[in-house]
Amino acid sequence: MKLCGADGKVDGDLGHCWARRIAPPNRCGPGIHKPASTSPLSGIKGDTLIDIGTGPTIYQFLSACESFREIIATDYADQNREELQRWLKRDPDAFDWTPVVKYVCELEGDREKRAEKENKVRSRGVQVLKCDVTQPEPLAPQAVPPADCLLSLLCLEGACKDLPPYHSALKNISSLVKPGGHLVLYTILDETFYMVGQRPFSCLYLRQEDVEEAVKEARIDFSFSVTDAKGACIVVARKIC
Ligand SMILES: C[S@@+](CC[C@H](N)C(=O)[O-])C[C@H]1O[C@@H](n2cnc3c(N)ncnc32)[C@H](O)[C@@H]1O
């Protein structure tokens, strides 16, 4: 499996890679956001951010490291967790995120702060943990503090084959959020598969109302859904109890 850079070029080789889905420089996903009041993450901050289904990517932490003291990255696939560890340890074989880091720094006002930004992400003591969203305790037996914010980008629709397991997975991961904490969910709508190189990956077909229903059922106070793109859904919600 090939790892594609943000420019779409094939850059590396990973067993289970998803970096192709990084928003290109003219479209920001929820992890890479313009520091404007329209950002779905503005105003959300705290001690602990848990990212569910991180993949081999660090882009989602580039802005989050400004708002959270501790970052916990999680994924089911060993290869993805290993790739993350390579970047965190400055392994020369790690994927080069430089263009993406510069782009985020530019959005935040200073393209030249790349090294500082990378240091800041690493200074958040990023833990990289095994996770399975299909389990009632997705991170067990690892113990983690309840999250002030739970982020999950493009994960559940790939991990779940049908709507009932999707509802369960959302409940499972929401157990990791403290009461009053936030959930930020980024989902592709109306999609059944996508390709990484030559390999197809299936994807649970979701409409926006399916996502909103699952969020409500997980007893998360649905606040708003924001998107500037057709076919994507960004939910920002707050846990009720
Ligand atoms: C499309 S990728 C998204 C990666 C990253 N969040 C991003 O935005 O680029 C989906 C990720 O979910 C992970 N995943 C699949 N099934 C999972 C499960 N049951 N529990 C946790 N993670 C899972 C995959 O290994 C993969 O890294």
UniProtKB/TrEMBL annotation:
GO cellular component: cytosol
Key words of the record: Methyltransferase, S-adenosyl-L-methionine, Transferase
Source organism, top-level taxon: Eukaryota
GO molecular-function terms, A-Z: N-methyltransferase activity; S-adenosylmethionine-dependent methyltransferase activity
Pfam family, one: NNMT_PNMT_TEMT
GO biological process: methylation
Name of the molecule in the record: Nicotinamide N-methyltransferase-like
Gene3D superfamilies assigned: Vaccinia Virus protein VP39
Protein family per UniProt: Belongs to the class I-like SAM-binding methyltransferase superfamily. NNMT/PNMT/TEMT family.
Residues that, per the record, bind S-adenosyl-L-methionine: Y59, D75, N80, D132, V133
